[in-house]
Amino acid sequence: MSTASPLTATPRPGTAGAGHAPAGSQPLKRRIAFASYVDENYLPGFLTLLRSLALTNPTLCEDFLVLHDDLRPESIARIRALHPRVRLRAVRTEHYADFVKGDQTNYLVRKAYFILDVFTVRDYDTVITLDTDMVVLDRIDELLRLRDGLGAVAQFFHGEDKLNSGLLVIQKEFLTDEFCARVDEIGLAGSYELDKHDQGILNALLAGDFVRVDARYNYVKRRLAGNKPVPEDVAVLHYTGRHKPWQGGETGYAPAEEAWHRYDIDDAALRAEFFALPGRKHPELVRHFGRQAHRAGSGLDIAVQLADALMELGDYREAVEVLGRHRIPARDARAHALYGNALMACARYEEARTHLLLATAHPPTAPRAHARLAQLAWVLHDDATAASHALSGLSADPTDRMCGILHRRTAPVSGGGRPSDAPPAGLNGASDQGGDRAGRLAHAAFYMDGQGNAGDKALPEAVRRCFSDDTGPGAWQSEHVHRFVDEAALERINRQRGLVIGGGGLFIPDTSPNGNSAWQWNVTDEAMRRIEVPIAVFAVGYNTFEGQGYARERFTDSLRTLVERAAFFGLRNHGSVERVRDLLPRELADTVVHQPCPTTVARQLIPGWRDPAERDDTVLLNIAYDRAGLRFGHDYGHVLAELATAIRRIGEHTEVRYASHAVTDDTFVTDLRREHGISLPVLPMYDWSTERILAEYARTKLVIGARGHAGMVPFGAGTPILSLISHPKLGYFLRDIDRPEWGVSVHERHLAELLTERALGLLDRHEATVADVHDRQVLLWKITQENMGRIRPLLGDPA
User: Fold this and answer.
1) 126 DSSP 8-state letter
2) pLDDT in tens, 647-675
3) CA separation for the pair 453, 13 (Å, rounded)
4) What is the DSSP pairing of strand 219-220 with strand 441-445?
5) pLDDT tens digits for range 579-593
6) Which residues form the Polysaccharide pyruvyl transferase domain (predicted)?
C-alpha cells in the first residue's frame, strides 16, 4: 500500500492541525462520516448519490449524516433502504430564519446555511460533505485517509484562493464550538459574497487557507459544456447550476447527464447490480441489501453472499437461516462449505459434518473443508477422525496451515500414546485418568499450538503459578476451552477438587465461535450447572474490538449462569470488569472483581527469578496484524508511514528489533521494507518457549507493542513499555497501573513525533522507569495475593 496520497498539493502555511490525543485515551478507530443536507426537492438527487456510492465504492460503509428539516416519513424510508448506517439530524431551522424567510423554495439558499450545521457535529473525527447534486463515479476511499486541515477542491472559475464547498473533508479541529461560532458570526453578518452563500462564508473565514483536494473529487459539470465527455478519472461529478438531471437537465451536457442517469435506477436493479459486482464488498452493505433481496425471493447466489457477510459480522444463526431456505445442489461446494461453517458456529455439529463432507468432493474447497472437519472432530474429542481429516487435507494441499496444526495436534505421539489436550510447554496432561478432589485442579484455558500467539502460550502456565509451583499434570487436569464439554469432560472436571477458567481474553465471539455459549468456552448452561466442584474464573478479559458484538442473548445468559456458579469471578482489567458488570443484574454484578493477568507479575511468580545485571541496548517493537481492519480502519498506510519515521529516529539512539508474537505479525515487517526501505531484525517469538520470551523481554530496555501481551509480558518481566493502542484492552491495562502516558493510539495524527518523544524520554530515564515498573507491579501482585487468599479455601487447597 502506497502511503503517498495523490489527493493534495502541499497545504498552505497556517492550515489548522489537531493536537495530540490525550495520553492513554480510549483507543477507538478514527470515526468518519459522510454528510449531506437533504430536502424533498433534492431527494431524487440524494437517492441517486447513495446508489452511485454503493455501486462504485462497495467496500466503503461509514455513517451517513442526513441533515434535514422537512423530510417526510416515506422519504426517510427510501433513504434508509439505500444505506445501512443513515443517521438523521435535524438542522437549526431557527438559526438562519431571517435569511431564508421569503425564499423558502430556494434550495441553494437553504442548503447554503443548513449544510453549515455540519460544523455542530461533535461525535466524528472526520466528516466528508457531499452535495445532493453529485454522483460518485469512481473510488473515493482516498478521501477517508486525509488527516489534516479542511480539504476542498479549489473553484474552477475563481482561482486557487477560493474553495468549492460541494465537497468538504472536515477534520475534528474544525468541528468545535469555537469554529462553529465563527461560521455563524460571518453567516449572520452577511459579510461575504452573497451569491456564493456557504462558499462565501467559508472563503471569508478561511481566506484561502484550506487543503487542496484534486479536482477529480469535485468535478463541476460546467467544465463539460459543449457535450464534452466525462474524463475517465473523475471520481465525483457535481451538477452545479440551477438545472438538475432529475428536473430535465440542461442542453449541451449530454455525457454528463448520461452519467447521472446511469444510477437513476430502482432498488431491485440496484441490488442486482451490487451483487453482480466482482471482488470484496463491505459486509454491512451486503447484509443490508442481501436482507432486502432475500425477502424478495432472491436465489442461492445472493444467499451465499449474504451468509458469508453474516458470518464475517458474527451473525452465525442468521447465516444458517438464510442458507437453510435454499436447496443447495451437491456440486455447489462453496455453498456447502459455508453452510457447514455456519452450522458448526451454531454448535449444530452433525448437520455441519454432512455439508462439509459434500464440500470435500471438490478439489478447490477440499483442503479447507477437511480442516474444518478435523476441527469439528477435535472439538468433539474424536482425535483419530480429526487426524484423518487433517491428513486428507494435507494430501490435497500440503501448505494448508490449519490442516498442519490439527494434524500435529491430534496425530498419535511416538510410542502409540494418545495426543494430549494441551500442547507442550510443560502443561501437557489432559489424561482422562487419575486425580480426586484432594489433589488436582481442572484448568479450562486456551492452550496455544506451536507457532501460535506467543502471549497466549505463556498464559496457562502463568495462571497455574498463581496457585502452585507445580504447573504439570500432577497438579492440573487440562481442558481446552474450545472442546465441547461433553459427559466425559464433565466427569473429568468433577473428579478434581476445583475448576479454574482462564486467563486470556476468553470473552470474544469469533476466535472459535460456538452456539453453546457465544464466547470461547464451548459449554452449555446445563453443563455448567452440573459442575459439582467450585469454579474460579481467573484473569479473563472482555476482548471485543470497537464495533464488534456478541450473540447478545446467548452470551448474556451464558455469562449469567457462569457468574451464578462461580465461587470467584476475576477479570484482568477494570475495563473488562465494567463491561461485564453492565451485562449483569446488580446482585451478580457486585461479585465481579479485578484480577490482573498473571503475566504482569511474572517476576513474582517464577521461583528464583533474577533481574538482569545488564540490558541490551535495544528497543523491541511489535505490531498486531490480525483483524487489521478492526485495528486500523482506513489508517494502516498512515500508521506504517508514521512508524517508519519513528523507527528511524529511535534507531539513531538504540537498535530497534521486531518481536513477532504471531505469524501474521510478520506482515508489518514485509510492508515496512517494501514501502519504506526499512529492514528490521525479526525475533520469531511464536516459535519460542515462555522462558526464552521472558528472558528476551527482561534484557531489552523498552518494548513498544500493539498486542496486549506485548505490553503485559515485558511489564511482568520488569521492562518499561509503550503501548500502541489498537484495542481497548491496552488502554484498560495502562489505566489500571495509573500510567496512561505509556500508551499512544495508533490513530494519533502525529504518531511518529509523539512515539519518538515518549520512547526517548523513557530511555533517558531508564533506571527510574524500571523502578517505576517494579513499583506498579507491586500493586498488581498485592491484588493477586489478596485474591488468592480468598480462592484457595474455596477450592479446597490442601496447603
Assistant:
1) E
2) 999 999 999 999 999 898 899 999 999 99
3) 46
4) unpaired
5) 999 999 999 999 999
6) 499-724
